[in-house]
Amino acid sequence: LTGFPPDVVNIIPGDGPECGYATSVHAHIDKVACTGSVEVGKKLREAATTSNLKCVTLELGYKFGDKLECGSERVDNKDYFIKATIF
């Protein structure tokens, strides 16, 4: 990637069992970022805590339609994501 020293940022595309698990348990990798399902995120987080407590960034979930159900409540998807991402 442009602007980063060599070996600081590496993008490793591949299947989860081979790629994701191996990077999340490797002791010399300090951070793992993943976009995927909630199930995969849980596995990566668990694997990362058993190695070196590396930093883990996860973007998880599924694509929703117009509405999202939160418990017994239906929430307008757009409003939910706007409120959920405010810092």
UniProtKB/TrEMBL annotation:
Molecular function via GO: oxidoreductase activity
InterPro entries: Ald_DH/histidinol_DH, Ald_DH_N, Aldehyde_DH_dom
SUPFAM superfamilies associated with the record: ALDH-like
Short name of any one Pfam family annotated for the protein: Aldedh
Domain of life the protein comes from: Eukaryota
Record domain Aldehyde dehydrogenase: where: 3-61
Record-given protein name: Aldehyde dehydrogenase domain-containing protein
Biological classification of the source: Eukaryota, Metazoa, Spiralia, Gnathifera, Rotifera
